[in-house]
Write a structure and sequence with these properties.
By secondary structure, the chain is α+β, with helices and mostly antiparallel strands. It is built from seven helices and twelve strands. It has a four-stranded antiparallel sheet. Strand 8 (182-186) and strand 9 (189-195) form a beta hairpin.
């Protein structure tokens, strides 16, 4: 079964990289954002002891279901930051995984969904943190070809993922052949449907070892299919993340540096289950 993770957050890390701003610090728990009062009405949290490394989430009528996600996964999603830009915190935030059944209104905006997960982290995981600006090595994600042609693994989406009926019909027609709306991930595999390019930045960051900033200029919703070998064997035909991005997506990772926001964890506690 593929879990479709539709919590796509669109804070512009590319804009942050272009700005030479001084160090920024504020209390994440009280940070202002559009729909700042958005929150799940209720959430059931259970620890997942399956030992699986795959996970994700999907919308359901009246809320969201997240499966086998760590606290680090949730923080990354809520603040649109890759793992290497989340500093501090207890060791269990990467090892412990949770299933979360959250109740909330349908057809939420991207900003509302972000704030809802932040509220969940604050209320149930007692998250307290602050932002700092640091100069870091990065990769810029750019279109590889001069004519702008993309690879076979990156296509314009034809489904309106904000429409529940359209989403349902498209998923039924596709079956398990492709991801229609949302994302799914596992070791060396990333698939998504109806999402913007920013949805894969955290995955590319984890695979490449540096923060990845979007310089593609691509807007709108796309379908993605990317497969690579995390530790390529030089004596085989295994594909590194750099080769996979260029050959499968028609994009390229270029080395550079940029000032980036880093989330420093001041407090995080295991949630009580219910």
């Amino acid at each position: 079964m593929r879990y479709a993770l539709t919590l796509c957050l669109t804070a512009s890390v590319a804009t942050l990289a272009a700005q030479q701003a001084p160090q920024l610090a504020f209390d994440v728990a009280t940070a202002q954002a559009p729909a700042a009062d958005a929150a799940f009405e209720a959430a059931s949290i259970r620890q997942n002891l399956s030992g699986s490394q795959s996970g994700g989430g999907r919308p359901r009528s009246g809320g969201y279901t997240f499966t086998n996600l760590s606290a680090l996964n949730l923080i990354s999603l809520a603040y649109n930051l890759p793992f290497d830009r989340i500093v501090g915190g207890p060791a269990w935030m990467t090892s412990d995984r949770y299933d979360i059944n959250a109740v909330g209104k349908d057809k939420t905006t991207t900003e509302e969904r972000a704030v809802m997960v932040r509220s969940l982290l604050r209320d149930r995981f007692q998250l307290a943190a602050h932002i700092e600006r640091r100069d870091l090595p990065v990769y810029f994600l750019v279109v590889a070809r001069g004519d702008g042609r993309l690879g076979p693994g990156l296509r314009r989406s034809s489904v309106d993922c904000k429409d529940p009926e359209a989403r349902k019909k498209a998923a039924a027609a596709a079956g398990d052949s492709r991801m229609v709306c949302g994302i799914t991930f596992n070791t060396g595999v990333f698939m998504a449907g109806g999402e913007g390019v920013s949805i894969m930045l955290s995955t590319l960051t984890a695979a490449s070892g540096r923060a990845v900033l979007d310089r593609t200029g691509l807007t709108g919703a796309y379908d993605f299919e990317l497969k690579w070998i995390p530790l390529p064997d030089p004596n085989s035909d295994n594909v590194s993340i750099f080769t996979a991005v260029q050959e499968q997506l028609g994009l390229r990772l270029e080395s550079g540096t940029a000032p980036l926001d880093v989330l420093v964890i001041d407090r995080l506690e295991r949630p009580s289950e219910n």
